## 1
Amino acid sequence: MVSWAEDDFVRSLVGAAPNTAAAYGRDLAQFVAWAERAGLGGPAEVTPLTLRRYLASLDTRRLQRRTIARKAAALRRYFGWARRRGLVTNDPARRLSAPRGEARLPRVLKERELDVLLDGGGPSAARPPGGPVEGAVDGRDRAVVELLYGSGLRVSELCDLRPGDLDLRRARVTVWGKGSKQRVLPMSEPSVEAVRTWLGEGRPVLAGPESPADRVFLNRRGRALTSRDVRRILDRRSPVPTHPHALRHTYATHLLDGGADLRAVQELLGHADLATTQVYTHVSKERLRSVYLATHPRA
C-alpha cells in the first residue's frame, strides 16, 4: 500500500498558522481513514468523484457548512502538494468545491459589556483584594484586555508576544500574524499604561526560575500564557460569555464607525484579502441602523 505521506504534508505547511496546520492534519487523517475503508490504497487512486462522495458523506452527517468547506480546503491543499511531490499525476481536487460557510456577522460587544470588561467589573469583581499574586494577576488581566481591544490582536498574537515586540515609548507593538506576516500596530494610551505596569510590577511576582524570558505574559504558574488562559480571563471579567475574538471584532467595527478607511483597517487587522475585512462594514451599518431605530422619533 502506498503511503499517503500525511506527516510530510503537515510538515510542509510552514506558512500556515499552527492551528490551521493542525486542523488540516486532522482533516486529512479523517479523509484517509474514510478512503481506506472504501478500499483505496493511496492518493493516486483518488478521483474527483471520490472526493465529491466524501463531501456528500460529511453533509449527511450534518456537519456545519463551514466545517465541510474547511475540509475541502485541506484536501485541495493536500492534493496540490501531492502532485508537486509526484504522489499523483493529476490533481483530483483542483476543481473541488464545497458549500460556502454561513455568513455569520461577528459579534460586537455592547458599550456596557466593553466597559465592564475593561474595568474588571465582572462576576468576580466583588471579591476582596488578595495579596501580591492577586494584584499581579489583576494587572496582567487588564493589560491583556486592553491590548486585545486597543490594538485588535488575535489571541495567538498576544500569547506569542516577546518583550522586544513592545515599544512603549512610541506606543507600538510588533506582531507576527498568519503566514508569519509581520505588522506594527499602534497601542492605545490605556494599553501602554497597563502593559508598563504589568512588566514593571506584576510580571516579576508571577515569574519563577523556569518562566520563559521571551514571553510578555505569564499565567499563575509562571508559564507562558495560553489561549485557554485568555478565555478564563474574559470569563472572570465579563458579565456575559465573551470569546476573545469579539474584542478584535469590536476594535474593527469601532474604527469603521469612527470613519477609518477600510484599507487601513485591513492593514491593522492583518487581513490578506479585503473581502475578509468588508464584513465589518455590514456590522457597522447594522449598528447604525439599530441606533437609528432606537433613538429617532420617526423611526
## 2
Amino acid sequence: MTAPSDAPRPESDPATEDAAAPAARELYVAFQPIVNFERKAIFGYEALLRCKSETKTHAVQVIQEAIAAGSWGQMGRDLREMAVRGSPRAALFLNLHPSEFNEGWLVRPDDAMFYHDEPVYLEITESVPLSHFKHCHGVLREIRGRGISLAIDDLGAGYSNLKYIADLNPEVVKVDRQLIANLRGESRTQKLVAALVKLCDSMNAKVVAEGIETPEELSAVIDTGAHYGQGYLFARPACPAPEVDWRMLRQRRG
C-alpha cells in the first residue's frame, strides 16, 4: 500500500527529482521468497532491483550513477514505493544503501515502507561499514520507532564484524552465500554457521541462510538451526513474485 493521497508531501529539490526519474525507469523490482523451515511456508520476500535497459549490464551500475549524480535519495524512495506496491501480502525485505543515511528521505513520514500491511525489514550490508555511526543510529532509531525492523545482510562476506551486529541489535541476520555454497554436514564450515546461528539466537536475532541452491546445502543449513532460507532451490527472483518449489523442503523429515 502506498502512502495515503492526502499525506503531506515534503519539499524536495526539483533538479534532483528530474535526475532521478529517468534512472528509476531503468529499474524494476523482482521478488525472491524467504522460506520458514519449521513451518514449511513463506516468511517473506526480498525486493531485488533489476535493470530493464540493454545498454546497462546490472542494476548496480544505475545505482552508482544515481549516487554520483546525488539523486539516489529520491530514487531509493521511488523504488521502495514500487516494491511495496508490487509485493505479495508477506514480510518485505528492502535493501538500503549506506549513502541514504546522508540524505533525509528515509525519515519522511509518507515513505511507502511505513504503509506496507506486513512487517518491513531494511537490509544493511555487513560488508560495507557505516560512516557517521551516531547519525546512522539516530536515523535507524527513528525508523524503527515507526515499526520498521532491521536485517544485517552478507554476514560472512569478506569479513565479519560481530560488534556491528551487537551495536545495531538487528531482528534478522542473513548469512552470506559464501558460507552456504557447497555446505556439507559435519564440515568445519557447517560448524561455523551453526555457531553463528547460536550467537544470533543469543542476541534474539533470526537467521536467514542465503543462496541455497542444492538439496545438500539445504539439509546442511537446516541442521545448523537456521530459521529461514533463500535461494534458487526454492525460486529465482521474478516479477510478479514466483511460486515456491517446496519439494525438497517437504521431503525432509522434521
